[in-house]
């Protein structure tokens, strides 16, 4: 018994020291939960004190296959034995193969690789302006939407329709206007002969898990074509199967001119991609844009294994089915706790529960119950589990959520 207690005390001290060092040496730009995650398998992660958590956050919609998925791990190891980093001055086989794969499973005909979603959006803004300038047209304005979120670089944050992310960073990139989401008349009122592109998320994730209306998306695609304006989709969070289809735009029966992808793309490693049509691609010439680490062979190998597994194991159908089950069971929790929750929104496995209060406390209550979830737009609980979860995982998550909700009610 004494040895066991000594080990427990040692683990507690190690956890305390890691957290203390993190607070001392990491720039304070995150509100972190006071746990230290050490390892994971599938949809479960374990902290430094051997507590197990059911992960329904997936590193902000990154881990489509959960933790330590064998095919992805093996791909990383095998490629790391061959090449680490070679830059884009040369071709590397995994990167070229990944580019072809992405074009084969989407509208795209050309791909630019970077490291994150914000870089992919940044590249899209630059390409939209370059495209028209090379055609001799003075079209540079970008129309985005209120409550959108597109990343943290200056162009991306300038195109984000939430003031809280922009405060203190002014002046922002000029030439960006904001329309009302799901309101085609609002877009029509902003389009003019200076408009280069409309930038939109199929689901406003950081904006509170707000899906675009199908009729609105189709009208937007028709309007942009009629006006000679590019349509850019930000599928950083919704792509790679999260909505039950490989890309969320497939739900709407349209195709964009450009699309930003990241998050789940790299199989857990950092990767972003701007995917475009041939027509738009001609806006960039050698030297116009670059990314030192974009298309790294190890990350490309991981991305290939990730995508091929999702397709080969039919996880798109699994995500659609289990996403519907999860949504229905979350709606049951809403009915059980009307004092806390208002409604459930989303598509597939990107779901949000709107709360009648700020969600931060509820996120912490879930952690105490062994469930990892996120928040969005301050008052929305965000669920982005791995695509590999099963109904037993869902039932376990709902049980933990109910217990967390009961504890949250005591804090009112």
Q: Overview of this structure, please?
A:
This protein has helices spanning 2-25, 58-61, 70-80, 93-104, 117-134, 154-158, 184-188, 214-227, 278-281, 297-312, 315-336, 360-368, 391-410, and strands spanning 37-41, 44-47, 52-55, 110-114, 141-145, 176-179, 195-200, 203-204, 210-211, 230-234, 258-261, 272-276, 341-347, 350-355, 371-372, 374-376, 380-383. The strands form four sheets. Strands 4-12-11-10-7-5-6 form a seven-stranded mixed sheet, sandwiched between helices. A four-stranded mixed sheet has the order 1-2-3-15. Strands 13-14-17-16 form a four-stranded antiparallel sheet, with helices on one face. The protein has two domains: 33-62 and 314-410, Aspartate Aminotransferase, domain 1; 70-312, Type I PLP-dependent aspartate aminotransferase-like (Major domain) (Aspartate Aminotransferase, domain 2, 3-Layer(aba) Sandwich). The radius of gyration is 22 Å and the shape is globular. The protein is of the alpha/beta class. Strand 16 and strand 17 (380-383) form a beta hairpin. The chain is built from 13 helices and 17 strands.
Distance between the termini: 40 Å
Please identify which CATH superfamily of the largest domain we are dealing with: Type I PLP-dependent aspartate aminotransferase-like (Major domain)
* Helical proportion, percent range: 25-40%
The structural class is alpha/beta
Please mark out the parts with pLDDT under 50 across 5 or more consecutive residues, or reply none: none
Instruction: Report the average pLDDT across residues.
Output: 96
Report the total helices. Answer: 13
What's the overall geometry? globular
């Amino acid at each position: 018994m004494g040895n066991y207690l000594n080990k427990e005390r040692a683990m507690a001290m190690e956890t305390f020291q890691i957290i203390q060092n993190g607070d001392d040496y990491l720039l304070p730009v995150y509100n972190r939960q006071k746990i230290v995650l050490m390892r994971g398998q599938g949809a479960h992660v374990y902290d430094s004190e051997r507590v197990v958590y059911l992960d329904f956050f997936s590193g902000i919609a990154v881990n489509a296959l959960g933790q330590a998925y064998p095919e992805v791990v093996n791909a990383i190891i095998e490629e790391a034995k061959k090449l680490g980093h070679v830059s884009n001055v040369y071709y590397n086989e995994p990167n070229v193969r990944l580019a072809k794969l992405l074009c084969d499973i989407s509208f795209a005909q050309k791909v630019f690789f970077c490291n994150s979603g914000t870089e992919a959006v940044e590249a899209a803004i630059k390409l939209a302006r370059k495209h028209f300038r090379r055609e001799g047209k003075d079209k540079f304005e970008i129309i985005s939407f209120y409550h959108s979120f597109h990343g943290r670089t200056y162009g991306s944050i300038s195109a984000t329709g939430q003031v809280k992310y922009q405060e203190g960073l002014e002046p922002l990139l000029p030439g960006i206007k904001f329309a009302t989401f799901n309101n085609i008349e609002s877009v029509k009122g902003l389009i003019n002969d200076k408009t280069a592109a409309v930038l939109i998320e199929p689901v406003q994730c950081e904006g509170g898990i707000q899906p675009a209306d199908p009729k609105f998306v189709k009208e937007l695609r028709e309007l942009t074509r009629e006006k000679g304006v590019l349509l850019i989709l930000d599928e950083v969070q919704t792509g790679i199967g999260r909505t039950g289809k490989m890309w969320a735009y497939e739900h709407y029966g349209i195709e964009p001119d450009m699309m930003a992808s990241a998050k789940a793309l790299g199989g857990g490693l950092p990767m972003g991609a701007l995917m475009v049509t041939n027509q738009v691609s001609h806006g960039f010439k050698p030297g116009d844009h670059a990314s030192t680490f974009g298309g790294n062979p190890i990350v490309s190998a991981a991305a290939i294994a990730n995508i091929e597994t999702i397709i080969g194991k039919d996880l798109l159908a699994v995500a659609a089915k289990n996403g519907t089950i999860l949504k229905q069971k979350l709606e049951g929790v809403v009915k059980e706790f009307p004092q806390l929750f208002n409604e459930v929104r989303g598509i597939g496995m990107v779901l949000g529960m709107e709360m009648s209060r700020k969600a931060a406390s509820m996120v912490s209550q879930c952690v105490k119950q062994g469930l990892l979830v996120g928040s969005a737009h301050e008052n929305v609980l965000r669920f982005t589990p791995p695509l590999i979860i099963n109904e037993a995982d869902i039932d376990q998550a709902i049980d933990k959520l109910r217990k967390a909700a009961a504890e949250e009610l005591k804090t009112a």
